[in-house]
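seq as requested:
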Amino acid sequence: MSSGNMGTTTPATETPAGQPTIQRQGRGRGPMIAAIAVVIVVILVVVVGWQAGWFKSSSSSSSTTGVTGCTLPSPGTLKGEGSTLVAPLMDQWASSYWTTMIVSYDSAGSSAGIQAVSTKVVDFGASDAPLTPQQRSNAPGILTVPESAGGVVPIYNLPSLKAPLNFNGSVLAQMFDGQITSWNNTALQALNPGVSLPPNNVIPVYRTGGSGTSFIFSSFLTLENPYWALHYNKSTAWPTGLPGTGASGNGGVATTVSTTTYALGYVDLNYALTTQGIGVGSVENSHHNFIHASVLNTLSALVDSNVTLPKGNGDWYNVSFLNAPGPNDYPITSLTYVLVYQDLSAAYSTYTLNSAENLVDFLHWVLTTGQTWSGDLSYVPLPTSVTSQANVTLNSMTFNGSPVPVCVPTGGGAPA
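struct tokens:
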């Protein structure tokens, strides 16, 4: 099942929540057309949501491993570090979880999150890039747990442009590696017939440091452009020696593009929709349709990909939802991950059973109640096919040789 924006060149206008805005006509048959459009949007949401499992009972784990009847977590603190892509959603979770628990999150980048959890200075790491085999070897006993999903989008600053630009992976690769230097290059112009592109030079803006967003974006360029695949490939570190300006975090890239005329960057959809002064490009998918990213067509990409996920302690490095097979799927879609240790008593000498329960309960809450914030922040609520396996992974976490008792708090902590 595929859904999302149905055109190939002119996407629907997006609100910050990622849903199509219905433009009402002023006279005549306008109200009837608008009503029909609303019905169509509602049907799309219901159909895609049903397939994703939004309307099925959630896979809460409170009944699977023990304690029942709790309403509040025990007092304590949790610290996480990592991905800037997921930071707006992680911050929402941290501020919305029960006041008996203090959850802090440092959005220092995916590589920093991997390093922090590997050296056990945080309770959990967050990364948009799965661990490499070497990183898994350096952190034995670590688990990979999907916690959200989203789309990475090209953004640009061309003040004279009104409609979104069309891109494909090959052209984006050439614009970022310096083979295409001007905005009116014939290759980009061919993707945007009838659009007047300026002759000014392209100013690429890329992520500094180790970035999961760079990993997702460079993975897409690797699939789409043989030259990029041969010389740069996929990596959390942006290739050295390429032209442009570096910026820290998704927020830094979005701000730099918004303040630099003729700039081109890449960020998570949330940052693109909440930053003034930038355009958000449509990207050609596997059916040669140009798709403007939204919550619906990134969710559709997850569902249509039908990826068999590894176990939590397995190798996730080559898991990919890029170029999903549906005709209206957004092609640069990816999961983001929480990284935690399976044996908490072995990993942390300072942990008590209460510490272990607080971490496991918070992560179960993220996979259930926490998902209800995703759509409003332009992230994808995870399908039950993903959350059910993720909950199994959390249920495998132990303390002193026994499963950690699970009690997902109920009775609050959800959007009003």
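The domain at 152-294 is CATH 3.40.190.10 (D-Maltodextrin-Binding Protein; domain 2).
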